[in-house]
């Protein structure tokens, strides 16, 4: 076939976002996609799974993968997350290594850069939260990081305020290979709704209980279906904790905390599903689940599912 058209070919690809906890990865994905997909919290390491956001335009489709924070594993769950993250880096078309402009270079960054040296994929250095620093500081950050790794591009942004995020998108497109539209244009994530629903509930628990409940909690959706007798979707979810003291905190005085968690989560879930929701929550104690890989699988942290 002699198809001598001057039209640009469609581009598409997978872009992995890595960085220390709390640098703003979820905020960036939400900023790009414009919907609350990745959950956000002030506490580090709220992202456990890869949450994909899909951005489709007339010229390209960018599939963003929020990779769980790469860090030195302390227990089985950390080890498992690290493996998932490292595998991801080899498979994607582009890696965004995000740093927080306000925090100095640390051992966490050093660890990530060591990991990056083992992959062929091009890497952008994305300096986030530039709304919080003086431009002069930016120059010295750029100088410092330039010497550490051969970054394909260095892009300063503010994910929160949207500064320079358009330019970053443009540069991402330039690095993507020609490819098909993997997802329909109106699809913003390929995660099952159940997963997003469980993350919305987990987010409320973490926000409302502040430092009192650790990140090791999990939320398992046991049932999610439309009730025959009403328009509502019935969601049943268990919040899994490691100690009964944590159970007490989550339930609160006369159930007040659990009630508040449920109320806030329900509103978000209704928004997500576009339907009224009947949400039933309970708290379950399961000791030391983080170290039990078999239980991780039960809770849905399955490598082959990503
Ligand atoms: N000032 C400012 N704050 C930001 C910016 N981007 C993110 N934040 C804040 O930084 C905090 C952490 O953001 P997240 O998006 O949850 O960070 P994350 O990298 O996904 O965190 P993990 O899930 O722990 O890996 C939140 O309080 C955000 O509001 C930014 O550009 N400027």
From TrEMBL:
Gene Ontology terms, MF aspect: GTP binding; GTPase activity; ribosomal small subunit binding; small ribosomal subunit rRNA binding
Organism domain of life: Bacteria
Cellular component GO terms held in the UniProt record: cytosol; plasma membrane
Domain named KH type-2: residues: 201-287
Domain Era-type G stretches: 11-178
Name of this chain's protein: GTPase Era
Binding site for GTP: 19-26, 66-70, 128-131
Chain segments carrying region G5: 157-159
Subunit composition and interactions: Monomer.
Residue numbers spanned by region G1: 19-26
Biological role stated in the UniProt entry: An essential GTPase that binds both GDP and GTP, with rapid nucleotide exchange. Plays a role in 16S rRNA processing and 30S ribosomal subunit biogenesis and possibly also in cell cycle regulation and energy metabolism.
Cell compartments where the protein resides: Cytoplasm; Cell membrane
Family membership: Belongs to the TRAFAC class TrmE-Era-EngA-EngB-Septin-like GTPase superfamily. Era GTPase family.
Record Gene3D superfamilies: 3.30.300.20, P-loop containing nucleotide triphosphate hydrolases
Keyword set, alphabetical order: Cell membrane, Cytoplasm, GTP-binding, Membrane, Nucleotide-binding, Ribosome biogenesis, RNA-binding, rRNA-binding
Gene expressing this chain: era
A single BP term in Gene Ontology: ribosomal small subunit assembly
Residue ranges, annotated region (G4): 128-131
Membrane topology value: Peripheral membrane protein
Ranges for region G2: 45-49
Lineage: Bacteria, Bacillati, Bacillota, Bacilli, Bacillales
